[in-house]
Every structure is written in C-alpha cells, then in structure tokens.
Amino acid sequence: MNVAVLISGRGSNLEAILEKEKQKELGNAVVSLVVSNIPDAKGLEIAKRYGKKTIVLPPHRNQNRETYDKQLAETLEKNNIDLVVLAGFMRILSPFFVNKFSNKIINIHPSLLPSFPGINAQKQALDYGAKITGCTVHFVDEKVDHGPIILQEVVLVDDSDTEETLAKKILEKEHILLPKAIRLFSEGKLIVEGRKVRIVN
Ligand code: GAR
C-alpha cells in the first residue's frame, strides 16, 4: 500500500513514520513519496536521509486552491498513492481534492478535536485554561479539522506549561498515534460509518 506523506516544515511526524516503517511496524504501508509545498522544509532532508522520493510543489503566484490541488492530485495518482497522510501540511484542501481521495486522507492535529481546531492549537488550549488536551488523528473531510476521528491521545496540562513544553508533550504522543493509524488503515482495520470510525481486529 503506497503512502504519500505531505509536509510543510520540520517533519518530526514524518520521521516517526519512517522510523516505524524501518522497524517493520507500519503494517502493509510503504512510504513511496514525500511532498512538500515549502521548498526548504526541513522534513525534505529527513525524507532523503531515509532514501525516499521527494517532490516539492510550491503554489504559483495567484494560483487558486483548486488548480493547485488538481496538480497535487495528478502527482499522487501518477505515483499510485493509496493513502495521503498530512503530517504538518499547512494548506487547506479543496472539496475537489477531498472528494477525489475520500476516506483516504488522514491528518494529525495537536488537540483533542473538536476542541481547538485551526492554527496554534497548543496556545489555544493554554489560553483557554484547559486542564487536558492532546492530539487527534482523523480522516479529512470538507471542513477544517473536522472529519471522522480515528485515534486520540490525552495530554495533561500543568500550571507550569508553556506553549513549547505543551507542544513537546503532545508531539511525543503524535509520534505514536500517526504511525499507528497508518498501520491500522493499511491492514484494512478502519471502518468509516458516518462520523464514526470503527476499529476492527
Ligand atoms: C504537528 O504538531 C502537527 O500536529 C501540526 O503541525 C506540527 C507539525 O510538526 N499540525 C497542525 O497543526 C495541523 N492543523 P512536524 O512537522 O514536526 O511533524
């Protein structure tokens, strides 16, 4: 099963996935492509270090979302991609793209959705005074940070937490959760029923 990991930055989630693949803990999934919309994304170096094919797809000036997404979809289809993993990919996907890869796109978000969607989720949780937060892996639908939830993990917020310390604690859980979701998907163990995802044995 061919997986494309889409990134925009640091790529620590990408690295966690590639490490699990190396340890043969990614089920039937093979990361066959890493795509970045940002040319100097740090994660591209990680992909190369693991010998992965990389493609940089920066949006052209004034290019509308759907035109970009058509190009992205073509790239993924050319590479026979079965699962699209958003690992810190900071672009909103158009309904065109989401429908083309319906229930085949998963995203990791650093909060317990539906709380704190959008950017700076860790800061949102701190500012709100939440006592717990965490991370969510979910299928992507037409709304931002909204689709059916696959897995979630809780992180406790301490009084002494800063945005940085909280992000670090959440990231540790992300690195476990995202590869796990990919493995479950690759083994056909995720059954989507409306908003709910049933995990079968
Ligand atoms: C991760 O914390 C991920 O959850 C977040 O971006 C970071 C990427 O880190 N994604 C979002 O906020 C999406 N809404 P990484 O590049 O080191 O994997």
By DSSP, the count of extended strands is 9
What is the tally of helical segments?
A: 6
Helix content, binned percent = 25-40%
Biggest sheet, spatial arrangement of strands = 3-2-1-4-5-6-7
Series of secondary-structure elements, N-terminal to C-terminal:
EHEHEHEHEHEEHEE
Poorly predicted runs: none
The domain count comes to 1
Please identify, by name, the CATH architecture: 3-Layer(aba) Sandwich
Question: What is the fourth-level CATH superfamily?
Answer: Formyl transferase, N-terminal domain
**What fraction of the residues are assigned to beta strands by DSSP?**
15-25%
Q: Give the class from helix and strand content and strand pairing.
A: alpha/beta
Mean pLDDT: 97
Organism: Candidatus Heimdallarchaeum aukensis
Pathway: Purine metabolism; IMP biosynthesis via de novo pathway; N(2)-formyl-N(1)-(5-phospho-D-ribosyl)glycinamide from N(1)-(5-phospho-D-ribosyl)glycinamide (10-formyl THF route): step 1/1
Pfam families: Formyl_trans_N
EC number: 2.1.2.2
